[in-house]
Amino acid sequence: MADWRRSAKRGLRRVLYPAYEARVVRRLPADRLPKHVGVMLDGNRRWARAVGADTAHGYRAGAANIEPLLGWCEEVGVEVVTLWLLSTDNLNRPPDQLDGLVTIIEGAVASLAEQHRWRLHPVGALDLLPASTAEHLKAAEEATREVEGLLVNVAVGYGGRREIADAVRSLLQEHAGRGTTLEELAGVIDVDHIAEHLYTKGQPDPDLVIRTSGEQRLGGFLLWQSAHSEFYFCEAYWPDFRRVDFLRAVRAYAERERRFGS
Q: In terms of pTM, does the model score above 0.70?
């Protein structure tokens, strides 16, 4: 009896959700939709434990959900997506765990590049990654450089504090090359100078940041860029994140009154 009820509920959802999603899309205000969405793809390991699978299965399931997400973003007119796939903290995991995760990420990025549908841009401390992984990311960027579609920032080996430190370091190196003294630089440096050296330089800051798995913290994601972002925290683990969850996040964003700096 219990199995029959679960099957009936699943069948009912398959019938009702498409109609509900279509209604949500129709009611989204075109002038209040996000142009840049950051997504923290969290909960892959917990999802794997919940379904009785190993960690690698969780990461593979999470990787498979990336392409659908990008399609949903295109549907509502998003122009830039930043996906946090691997943090600098993750690089401290035991080699046997890290190697498997990195291999899955390489495969996921290669699959996105093969679509030739999205322009990929790696963001992160590539020098901290295995050389082969850094090469995979650079190759994906080069292969999609001329694609005119959605810009997808692939955050691998990414940490917000590291990004800011790298930006300041790059700024200092640039001015040292020009012969600028520290005193001269200190007299003119401002937030715009630093922003010009971020991994996402030239891009709009994220309007909406989504984190899955129920965690309600940034964890170092886009620390500089998200100063005025709206945040949406979803209970679903990333592999279970659905189109309806994404549309609810976008609807919540559209309903908010954004107060920049207040």
A: yes
